[in-house]
Fold:
Amino acid sequence: MAITTTQAIVFLILTLPSCIWAAWSDMKAMKIPNRANDLMFAVYVVAGAALVLWGPDADWTWKAYLWRYANFAVVLVIGMAMTATRLMGAGDAKFLAAAAPFVALGDLGLVLMLYLAALIVTFILHRTARATAIRNLAPDWTSWLPGKRFPMGLAFGVTLPLYFLLGALGLPRI
Structure:
C-alpha cells in the first residue's frame, strides 16, 4: 500500500467520528452535514502537517502532503459537476472531496474496489433493514422511505475506515 502504517493509524482514529457522523446523518436525514465534512478536512490539514513534522515516515514530506490537496480540488470539481447533473448529492460530493487528500494516489484502485464492495454490502443491508422490522428501531429515518434513493454516506463512511484499517495492518507497499 502507498499509505504508511503511521498515517493509516492516525487518520483512522481521527476520521472515524466524521465517517460515523456522515453515515448516520445520511441514513437519518439523507444529508451529510457540512460540519462533518469540515471536521474531516480539518483533520487532514492538522494531522497531515503534524505527521510531516513529527512522524517517523521519511517519505511523508511537505511536498507529498501538499500534493494531496490536488486530490481535494479534482474530486471537488468532479463532485460539483455530478451534483449539477443530479448524479450525486452535494453532501456526498463534499464528503468525497474532504476524504480525497487522505487517499494516496497509488492506492486509488484499492480504494475504488473497497468502495464498490462497501456499496454492495451496505446497499443490501440497508434495503434488508428497510424491508424488515429492523426499521422500527429508527422509524423516523428518511432513508427508509420508498424510492430509489440510497444514503451513499453509509458506503463512503465505511470505505475510508476500511482503507485505513488495511493500511494499519501494514500490508506490503506497492
